[in-house]
Specification:
- The structure is a single chain.
- By secondary structure, this protein is of the alpha/beta class.
- It folds into 4 domains: 7-92, Alpha-Beta Plaits (2-Layer Sandwich), CATH 3.30.70.100; 105-370, DHBP synthase (Alpha-Beta Complex), CATH 3.90.870; 371-502 and 731-747, Nucleotidyltransferase, domain 5 (2-Layer Sandwich); 510-516 and 521-531 and 539-724, ATPase, nucleotide binding domain (Nucleotidyltransferase, domain 5, 2-Layer Sandwich), CATH 3.30.420.40.
- Helix content is 33%, strand content 20%.
- Helix 15 packs across helix 18 and helix 18 (599-609) runs parallel beside helix 20 (648-660).
- The N and C termini lie far apart (61 Å).
- The protein binds zinc ion (ZN) (2 copies) and fe (iii) ion.
- Residues 486, 490, 513, 516, 700-701, 733 line the site of fe (iii) ion.
- One zinc ion binds next to helix 4.
Length: 748
């Protein structure tokens, strides 16, 4: 009997394979199959050479693809045959900085069960250690300065591993094998409470929170402000200090059971809350939930998340009650993430700091999701999700940077078939957010080895992101710029995440939002577009009305009511009797009153009419609070005249009539939502038939509205259409950069 000759292959594995325990996995796999060889990282991913029997080598290559570690996303496995060398054993090599930098940095990940067990075990050397992590969990994107992903390129570079940690790190059989941020109480970051107290910082911090203190707590992507959720005085004090009059605060519950005492944890919610991404989930508040009124005024939902760092777990366990954990900033500034800056900015807001000495390299907010039919509907995409790429169904050709919009900016850098969306960066009119925007354009490019050749931007000439694109192209003549219409970008973002290519037939895009630069000199925001990735045609829209005072009408929704009502008597007119006639005259004059087809502004008008919101303190507030008022038992709707131009005025007139007849706010709010949804469905179904289209795509910030989204989707499905809704990127302007990239690439 002859022994078959050994074979040797070199395998390149691409995707999210660094910092996710891939090398230990490969090591274990090779040992299991009796193979010899080597494994290491290079800038493009993981490189393995194995040698042994042909069948074992084949099984090995198959397993790389079919059962990778939990956090890995294997995108490619390429193997080439090599002459056998007769080598024995398996060697794990260091990183080599050669070749293209396409290795992916993964997102920050919530503490895993194994690490939690160690943290709770009095016999473990990491007992109660707030920075325990391993290859399956812990900080990633927020601590990475550069690639390849190794400890030296992270903010853990300053912590030298102790002997036991180094032994784990170098042991291929250990869970912490090559876990770059690994550490322990002897060698890792230290928790401090400032001002300090007599005892353990954690117990002392919990004691102060229990007594009503506001503490700044350093998390993964920056500082939060914490206060116990049931302490009305403390919450009110925090709200006053933040100058954040009404925007809801996020809550952290120590466990799923604690969360269940606050909110209805319906289908999909437990999975979302407990996922490794650990987003804040907006869920219906339970009657009697022990939450101070000032946590989320005017809102029947609460934003809840579970602990996602060991520090949060320890603090929550010590405190024993849910606590507010809102971003550490004043009003609408970005979250503070640099220690000195945080100390300065939060000094007036917090009574103390629970902080540590592991630097945060990239500011990252908490992600926010709602649930739609049990699946995540992204509202804000940041920690836990970014910078994981959105896979594209086509190659973008020349690398593109999508510069995004203005208020909820995020940028998107794409090369090949991957689109890297930055975390939510915030409102660019804020200087700190604008700095983050500039940093992100450089950092994403460095991390993923992408140098954009084309800049895609909004058509709005005054958006700072548009100016950035045009200025940069002026300075770098090799750069091309491509303007992309705002609502086309919204629809394209939805198409791109659902695997559309430039060759696909057009769909009927429904883009409903607050504001976007139109192509006809009006402000768009209620658009029915016959759209593919490369082009679009406006085939329908909400009827235009003047926005009296322009931007002032966005801050003061009652002005939109005035634009609709004119001389019609109503309570909202009585509330603003002193300025009503002037605003109506302004609207009629057309002066400083740009016409708009925005659905957001229609919501504003109805919200003011019903006395829900006359003025707002944050974007979308009037619409959000109107949705909260919807009576779920109401079945009525408002019929409107069918046509390509949706008569929003008929809906307003129906509201006025019901109001005069004494119908309750909840029922009117429901009928308005239903009427708008039904009119949308009728128009889209008819247009789809007319243009021979079988698919509709819903996008734009208005579709964060769960009542509207469900009814439009259900109606279109009943009409036989396939309906695409955003599942990976927000339907808000936070997703628009992906659409810009897709449109731009499709055109080239
Ligand atoms: Zn872990
Ligand atoms: Zn150690
Ligand atoms: Fe928009």
């Amino acid at each position: 009997m002859t022994v078959p000759p050994p074979v040797r292959v070199r395998v390149h594995v691409g995707g999210i394979v660094q910092g996710v325990g891939f090398r230990p996995f490969v090591h274990g796999l090779a040992r299991e199959l009796g193979l010899a060889g080597s494994v290491g990282n290079d800038a493009a991913g993981v490189v393995v050479e194995v040698e042994g029997g042909e069948a074992a080598v084949r099984d090995f290559v198959l397993a790389l693809r079919e059962r990778p570690p939990a956090l890995a996303v294997v995108e490619s496995v390429r193997s080439e045959a090599l002459p056998p060398t007769g080598a024995r054993g398996l060697v794990i090599t260091g990183s080599a900085v050669t070749g293209a930098r396409t290795a992916l940095v993964s997102a920050d990940t919530a503490t895993c069960g194994d690490c939690l067990a160690e943290m709770r075990d009095p016999a473990d050397r990491r007992y109660r250690y707030p920075f325990v992590n391993c290859t399956n969990c812990g900080p990633r994107y927020t601590i990475v300065r550069d690639v390849p992903y190794d400890r030296a390129t992270t903010t853990m570079a300053g912590f030298t591993m102790c002997a036991p940690c180094a032994a784990e790190y170098h042991d291929p059989a250990d869970r912490r094998f090559h876990a770059q941020p690994t550490c322990c109480p002897d060698c890792g970051p230290t928790l401090v409470l400032e001002p300090g107290g007599p005892g353990d910082p954690l117990r002392e911090a919990a004691a102060r929170l229990r007594d009503g203190a506001v503490l700044a707590v350093k998390g993964l992507g920056g500082y939060h402000l914490a206060v116990r959720a049931d302490d009305a005085d403390a919450v009110a004090r925090l709200r006053a200090a933040k100058h954040r009059e009404e925007k809801p605060f996020a809550l952290m519950a120590g466990s799923l059971d604690e969360a269940r005492a606050l909110v209805e944890v319906g289908p999909g919610a437990a999975e979302a809350l407990g996922s490794r991404r650990a987003p804040m989930v907006l869920l219906p508040r339970r009657p009697g939930a022990a939450v101070a009124p000032a946590v989320a005024p005017g809102n029947r939902d609460l934003g809840v998340m579970l602990p996602y760092t060991p520090l949060h777990h320890l603090l929550a366990a010590e405190l024993g009650v849910p606590f507010v954990l809102t971003s550490g900033n004043a009003s609408d500034e970005p979250i503070a993430h640099v220690d000195d800056d945080a100390r300065e900015r939060l000094a007036g807001l917090a009574d103390g700091f629970l902080t540590h000495d592991r630097p945060v390299h990239v500011r990252t907010d908490d992600s926010v999701v709602r649930l739609h039919r049990g699946a995540e509907l992204p509202v804000r995409r940041a920690r836990g999700y970014a910078p994981e790429p959105v896979p594209l169904a086509f190659d973008v050709g020349r690398p593109v940077l999508g510069c995004g919009a203005e208020v909820k900016n995020a940028i998107c850098l794409a090369a090949g078939r991957r689109a890297f969306l930055s975390p939510h960066l915030g409102d660019l009119t804020n200087p700190a957010a604008l700095r983050s925007f500039h940093e992100a354009t450089g950092h994403l490019g460095r991390l993923f080895g992408i140098t954009p050749l084309v800049l895609a931007h909004d058509l709005h000439p005054d958006y700072l992101a548009t100016r950035y694109a045009l200025d940069r192209a002026d300075a770098e003549p090799d750069l091309e710029t491509v303007g992309v219409q705002h609502h086309h970008a919204h629809v394209a973002a939805c198409l791109a995440e659902h695997g559309a290519t430039p060759d696909d037939p057009p769909v009927l895009g429904v883009a409903y939002d607050g504001t976007g630069f139109g192509e006809d000199g009006t402000i768009w925001g209620g658009e029915l577009l016959l759209a593919g990735l490369a082009g679009h045609r406006r085939v329908g829209h909400l009827a235009t009305v003047p926005m009296p005072g322009g931007a002032a009408a966005v801050r003061e929704p009652w002005r939109m009511a005035a634009a609709h009502l004119g001389d019609v008597r109503s309570p909202v007119r009585d509330r603003h009797a002193d300025r009503w006639d002037a605003v109506v005259a302004l609207a009629r004059s057309g002066m400083a009153s740009p016409p708009t087809s925005s659905v957001g502004r229609l919501f504003d008008a109805v919200s003011a009419l019903l006395g829900v919101r006359d003025t707002v303190t944050y974007e979308g507030q009037a619409a959000i609070e109107l949705e909260q008022r919807v009576d779920p038992d109401e079945r009525g709707t408002y019929p409107v005249t069918a046509g390509d131009v949706l008569p929003g005025g008929e809906l307003v007139a129906a509201v006025v009539e019901d109001l005069a007849a004494g119908v309750g706010t909840g029922r009117i709010a429901a009928r308005f939502h239903h009427g708008l949804a039904d009119a949308t469905v009728a128009a889209v179904a008819r247009l789809a038939g007319e243009h021979g289209v079988g698919t509709a795509a819903l996008s734009g910030g208005v579709f964060v509205n769960a009542v509207l989204l469900e009814r439009v989707r259900a109606g279109l499905e009943a009409a036989g259409l396939r309906v695409l809704v955003p599942t990976r990127v927000p339907c808000t302007d936070g997703g628009i950069a992906l659409g810009q990239v897709a449109v731009c690439a499709a055109r080239m």
